[in-house]
Design goal:
With 62 residues, this protein is an all-alpha fold. The protein contains two helices and no strands. The chain starts with a helix and ends with a helix. The relative contact order is 0.06. The model has no long low-confidence stretch (mean pLDDT 85).
């Protein structure tokens, strides 16, 4: 009976840790996607502003 109890507790603890890691990675990747989308939106906005002002970034940099 002791062996069965120990095995059950180890299984429950292991399952909980795996679930915790899965949720953590999901949270991290969700935040990374949001940051990437935000950078893309700002890049598009900057491109529209440059087009409106008729700025040529590579020429300005040189």
């Amino acid at each position: 009976m002791n062996g069965a109890l120990a095995t059950t507790l180890i299984g429950i603890t292991g399952g909980g840790l795996l679930t915790l890691h899965a949720l953590f990675f999901r949270m991290i990747f969700t935040r990374l996607d949001r940051v990437y989308d935000l950078a893309m939106d700002q890049g598009k906005r900057l491109a529209r502003i440059e087009a409106k002002l008729e700025i040529d970034p590579p020429a300005e940099a040189a």
